[in-house]
Amino acid sequence: NLFNKMILPIALYGSEVWGPFALSSNRLYSVNSLFNKMKKIPVENLALKMARFALGIHKRTSIDAIRGELGLFPIGFQILNKSFKYLDRLSKMDSSTLIGDAFSICKGPFVGQYPWISLSKKLLSVSKISSDDSSFFHLKNSRAREFLSLLNSKH
To answer: Most buried of 3, 15, 61, 116, CB within 10 angstroms?
Structure first.
């Protein structure tokens, strides 16, 4: 709980922007590859080290056992959620504002020139989430469980 309230917000600061870069790679073609990429995020390693310390267990203890004991989801879900919420907010922004106008220009024929938008859209397609699915942008445990069940069925 201490980690989630004091350390995690600092560690995830700005993840709306850096998240798609951290979660993307040239070999990101499926939900499984996205899940594997989530495991390699430095913030995830920090969270697992803290969980091991809190439980007082050996460093070779299974990650699944740690997550099950503490009820933890991968931090990559939070990063995806924040990135998708930000993308959704930008896409709904009025083009009379400076940010809305800049985003509408980026969505046009220049999409390939703006890596953040391209990577965010790639993550949306790989995670099998429709950008029209506004319920995802308010990710709760039920949606996370649904996404986890999709991941588990692919494993």
So the answer is: 15
